[in-house]
Amino acid sequence: MTETGNQDRPAVRVTGLWKTFGEQVAVSGIDLDLPAGRFIGLVGPNGAGKTTTLSMITGLLRPDAGTVEIAGREVWQDPVDVKSRIGVLPEGLRLFERLTGRELLSYLGRLRGIPAAEVERRADQLLDVLDLLGAQNKLIVDYSTGMRKKIGLAAALLHNPEVLFLDEPFEGVDPVSAQNIRGVLERYTASGATVIFSSHVMELVESLCDWVAVMATGRIRAHGPLAEVRGEADSLQHAFLELVGAGAGAGPDDRLDWLGGDRDR
Ligand SMILES: Nc1ncnc2c1ncn2[C@@H]1O[C@H](COP(=O)(O)OP(=O)(O)OP(=O)(O)O)[C@@H](O)[C@H]1O
After folding, report:
1. What is the CA radius of gyration of the chain?
2. Which of 17, 18, 24 has most ligand 1 atoms within 8 Å of CB, for mutation?
3. Whose CA is nearest to atom 2 of ligand 1?
4. ipTM surpasses 0.90
5. What's CA 45's distance to the chain center, in Å?
6. In this structure, are residues 192 and 139 in contact, taking their beta carbons and an 8 Å threshold?
7. Which residues make Cβ contacts (< 8 Å) with residue 59, sequence separation at least 6?
8. Which domains occur in the chain, in start order?
């Protein structure tokens, strides 16, 4: 069995993960196994700790305590090896603004040690599938928000990683490109790879993911197969609101009694 095809070992194993920023506890001792070969959604309200968690898992932010294993390797003991096995599309992605999209892929491909001809072959296909061929010779500084997401995704996929981490991958992406991205990701997970993505858009998570983890105030509130986490609720959105304790008091109340209505007051 190939390592990528090892479905018994979790893609990611997080144990006792902690992070504080001054007085603020951002991630509060998380234990979590994320299964391999699944499309996994990490959801939670603003400030829940999703980005902090993903940053620690992907070797971008050192935890205060705890360990992270990806495909059986400890991220913070062997970050270079782990980074060769993962692809990351982080929040607030920084790109080389003065390269064209095509140059970025060529450069990153060579940095990853992929032979030049193979880099060009993969870049051609990724640019085509993501509808970026027309913009391949444009400088990245001139890309739109959605185009930046798409070139970032191409860069994250170029080395055919075992596990792909995506922070809000569909933000700013048009519906046609979103459909193409879905197709790429579905094909990728069908081959045994794992996608872990964070999003606030519950309909999207519900339609894409087969496994979810719900975070709130630095803790995991629920995790497991989508149907299990959704439980009796009629949608993931409702289950989510229950889980994060936003069911009551989330509707309109009298706190904004000045908004709208009589403007003569
Ligand atoms: N660099 C930092 N310095 C200080 N506090 C931080 C820092 N990064 C995150 N935090 C705090 O940690 C908590 C978790 O933030 P995080 O960005 O991980 O949440 P999130 O779930 O990704 O939120 P969102 O959905 O809004 O992106 C928040 O209270 C945030 O203010």
Report:
1. 20
2. 24
3. 21
4. yes
5. 15
6. no
7. 75, 76, 79, 82, 83
8. 12-97+161-248 (3.40.50.300)
The response to whether residue 26 sits with its C-beta less than 6 Å from ligand 1 reads: yes
Per-position pLDDT tens, the chain of length 265? 444 445 578 999 999 999 999 999 999 999 999 999 999 999 998 899 999 999 999 999 999 999 999 988 999 898 899 999 999 998 778 899 999 999 999 999 999 999 999 999 999 999 999 999 999 999 999 999 889 999 999 999 999 999 999 988 888 888 888 888 888 898 898 888 999 999 888 888 998 899 999 999 999 999 999 999 999 888 888 988 888 876 545 556 678 888 887 777 6
Which has the closest alpha carbon to 152: 83, 78, 91? 91
Model-level pTM? 0.88
Atom of ligand 1 nearest to the CA of 51: 22
